[in-house]
Automatic annotation (TrEMBL):
Full protein name: nicotinate phosphoribosyltransferase
Catalytic activity: 5-phospho-alpha-D-ribose 1-diphosphate + nicotinate + ATP + H2O = nicotinate beta-D-ribonucleotide + ADP + phosphate + diphosphate; nicotinate beta-D-ribonucleotide + CO2 + diphosphate = quinolinate + 5-phospho-alpha-D-ribose 1-diphosphate + 2 H(+)
Domain of life: Bacteria
UniProt-listed Enzyme Commission number(s): 6.3.4.21
Organism: Ectobacillus ponti
Length: 376
């Protein structure tokens, strides 16, 4: 399989530095519903040069994402893209239910078969961007704004990472877990250690941290402390070992596990759920670190966090400094619809749909299709 890499030279400055990669089989109709392909062939024979206006919308309050990708798609795979008249909102725009986010006017046979592909791009990117935005707002709902790291590499197919990472960036995360997630917006992946590194050192968190710091001395030392299901004990061990060099600890306790702190202190158990990285455990961890003079050590939590759980933490003023969030950000909850609403400049649409002008849309001009680089 080959990929087509395109750096779009469009009218809007937002497009000139974005690099998207597409499977070249998009142009062969491989990813389009067969009825769109059949319609294209019928129109070519029976209604050639029919001009339609295709309009896209969705039904939620959302953060729009995917428009640049769609425009690049049209530049790459539409026949005669320079003849298309495109109006679009921008990635990152806040949109309302049923608001028109994009219109494409041109000959149906030039671009109509891409309708479903466009819907899918907008649906996935907008869903992820909106999910991230809501989580980021939740992390800002307390006394301080807490950054969010996108850790969705294990929650979906790896081929989605670049687009999901870009959508997460649009939604407001400060960093992503993999290099691929950063590909479309020019950064590098960030992260420290997994449980596997600690396992390689026989479960000795200090030894694993020592090896990490030796190998990557320029990195901020952030140590994972839940491997032995005793986060306070292990956090204090690494804090005593590294002192001011230790920048933070991460708690990633499974939602099926109860930390050893509660086994040693059953008197603190009450009506709360003691499993996972819960609020009382984080309060106890902060207190233990501060009691030994490690106020500088930040606390990062991850593992099953979503908007609701983060809002609960912030409402309780849980002393978290950063959230790592994964799977909850990848739920596809927003669907887009593309409709042909004008035929040769006159209103023509299925019942219940009509052309809805949106003064917020900006004109996007595409050039004649340029030579693109084919990569093996």
């Amino acid at each position: 399989m080959k990929e087509i890499e395109l750096k779009l030279q469009g009218k809007l400055k937002r497009l000139t530095n974005r690099t998207f990669k597409f499977d070249e089989r998009v142009g062969e109709g491989w990813f389009s519903a067969v009825y769109f392909l059949k319609t294209r062939d019928i129109i070519k024979e029976f209604r050639p040069n029919t001009v339609v206006t295709m309009q896209f919308f969705q039904k939620e309050h959302a953060v729009l994402c995917g428009t640049d990708e769609v425009i690049a798609l049209l530049q790459t795979f539409a026949a005669h893209p320079e003849d298309l008249e495109i109006h679009s909102l921008r990635d990152g725009d806040m949109i309302s239910p049923f608001e028109t986010v994009m219109t494409i006017k041109g000959r149906y046979e030039d671009f109509g078969y891409l309708e479903g592909v466009i819907d899918g791009i907008l649906a996935r990117r907008t869903s992820v961007a909106t999910n991230v935005y809501n989580v980021v707002q939740a992390a800002r709902s307390g006394r301080e704004e807490k950054p969010v790291i996108f850790m969705g590499d294990r929650d979906d197919h790896f081929t989605q990472q670049a687009g999901d990472g870009y959508a997460a960036f649009i939604g407001g995360t400060i960093g992503q877990a993999t290099h691929a997630m950063n590909e479309w917006w020019g950064k590098s992946g960030m992260g420290t250690m997994p449980h596997a590194l600690i396992q390689m050192f026989g479960g000795d968190v200090v030894e694993a941290a020592r090896a990490y710091h030796h190998k990557f001395p320029e990195d901020d030392l952030l140590v994972l402390v839940d491997y032995n299901n005793d986060v306070i004990t292990d956090a204090l061990r690494v804090a005593r070992e590294f002192g001011p060099t230790l920048k933070g600890v991460r708690v990633d306790t499974s939602r099926t596990m109860i930390d050893q702190y509660f086994i040693r202190h059953p008197e603190v158990l009450g009506t709360f759920d003691p499993r996972g990285a819960n609020a009382p455990l984080i309060f106890a961890l902060r207190e233990a670190l501060d009691a030994e003079g490690f106020e500088h050590v930040k606390i990062v939590v991850s593992g099953g966090f979503d908007e609701k759980r983060i809002r609960s933490f912030e409402a309780q003023n849980v002393p978290v400094d950063m959230y790592g969030v994964g799977g909850s950000l990848l739920r596809i909850t927003i669907g887009f619809t593309g409709d042909n609403v004008e035929l040769n400049g006159k209103p023509e649409a299925k019942a219940g749909r009509k052309y809805r002008p949106n003064p917020r849309l900006e004109r996007v001009e595409l050039t004649a299709q340029e030579v693109v680089e084919l990569k093996n």
